[in-house]
Amino acid sequence: MTGTRVAIADDDVLLREGLASLLERSNFEIVGQAGDAPELLALVRRHVPDLVVVDIRMPPTHVNEGLEAAQAIRREWPETAILVLSAHVEVEHAMQLLASGDRIGYLLKSRITDVEEFIDTLERVARGGSVVDPALVQELVEVRRRHDPLAVLTEREREVLSLVAEGRSNAGVARRLWVTEGTVEKHVRSILTKLDLPEADDDHRRVLAVLTYLESH
Q1: How far is CA 19 from CA 7, 24, 27, 79, in A?
Q2: Torsion angles phi and psi, residue 169, rounded to 5
Q3: pTM for the whole structure
């Protein structure tokens, strides 16, 4: 995705500079960098980038300043895509952000091991997709044991939804299950219909389906 304008926020200057260099080599345009939340908000206000990559914990308290900034950006600039990077699984805050719509991603820094896959994730989020780190999926599976709204799904549909919950595209699910992308698309349409999700754009409905999956485990 040539020309995607990106703002980067992380208080680790070496990580920030390294990420900026990587993205520039991948044809992203870096509009600026920030070391804390106020600086990020000022940067977004000035440039209105297509995509913001932000760490969760930043100065001064290193608690959830990045998430709060991401939520503020979502409210003021809903068309700006957001990828949250974290060293920690922040379940409740992450779920609030993911529930806010499309163009959202949440990844753990320690699990980014493939540069091409990371770049693909950024492009998918910038295009309007949503990505959830499998570690967040697992955390929610462990802490949220409720009634099962997924009982209406077939075993294969549950399998497809679990892979979608990991952030995989239809093509990625197809490769994992050794089926065609068209078959996955049919399963996804069936899942959305059976879960009786409100009519919206497909990417947002996929996020709602993922949330339903996570909350049921």
Answers
A1: 11, 9, 13, 22
A2: -75, 170
A3: 0.65
